[in-house]
Write a structure and sequence with these properties.
Length: about 240
């Protein structure tokens, strides 16, 4: 939040939504809320937490990486006398009663199912919306999925489908970095030559030309039937 949004008009609109009581009493927010916190909407796309706005109106910009706590304990309180600056402390790690909620692998499993089966998911159109599914044995069993893919090798890895046109199924899923996934996407570009349509990777395997070479040749405008074969073969065909 920048201080330029705190013009007189905004400040006035802000206080209209606060029930300002006695000096030492709590000043509850009466506007919209999100998870019990007051939220002020500048417009449809921009908002700020009410207690943070109150602090900034009184004391100036909130120092970087600091949080504003309500010393009184009332989450909607906007009385600046009840607001104190604190450092963010991550919540204590509570092990899940089912044993895995906090695992990145569990998050990956949940996200995979969401992309494929929940139309309200932003990515649905690129997954479920175009027929990408999750193998039945994984769909309802996180443990089976985890047993197959194993632990995530690093935070840079995410679940990748090797063949982009096939679903999340054994044989088509692995952990891969963004870089590896981009390379894989390039490799799986389809090329038609000699009456067949194969991926770059498949052409590369067939004629022993690297998929990068084929891609570069195609970018230079080569005819696909020349691009996928090596020089000697090109002469022969
Ligand atoms: Zn209070």
């Amino acid at each position: 939040m920048t201080s330029d949004v705190h013009n007189a008009q905004t400040v006035e609109a802000f206080w209209k939504r606060v029930d300002r009581r006695g000096e030492d009493e709590c000043w509850p927010w009466t506007g919209r809320k999100w998870q019990q916190h007051g939220v002020y909407y500048f417009n449809k796309n921009s908002n700020a937490m009410a207690h943070r706005m109150s602090w900034e109106i009184h004391y100036g910009p909130i120092p970087k990486n600091k949080v504003i706590r309500r010393a009184c304990g009332l989450l909607t309180c906007c009385n600046p006398r009840h607001l104190v600056v604190g450092s963010y402390v991550p919540p204590p790690h509570r092990p899940c009663p089912r044993g895995h909620k906090h695992d990145p692998e569990y998050a990956a499993w949940k996200a995979m199912r969401r992309r494929c089966y929940r139309p309200s998911c932003a990515d649905f159109q690129n997954y479920g919306g175009r027929g990408i599914t999750v193998a039945a044995e994984w769909l309802n069993s996180y443990d089976t999925f985890l047993a197959y893919v194993g632990r995530r090798p690093s935070p840079k890895h995410s679940i990748d489908r090797i063949d982009n046109d096939r679903g999340y199924e054994p044989g088509n899923v692995r952990w891969a970095t963004a870089k590896e996934q981009a390379r894989n996407r390039r490799r799986s570009v389809k090329v038609s030559a000699f009456g067949e349509t194969l991926s770059l990777g498949e052409w590369a395997e067939r004629f022993g030309v690297s998929s990068d070479t084929i891609r570069q040749r195609l970018e230079r405008g080569w005819d696909p039937s020349r691009a996928v074969v090596n020089g000697a073969q090109a002469v022969a065909t």
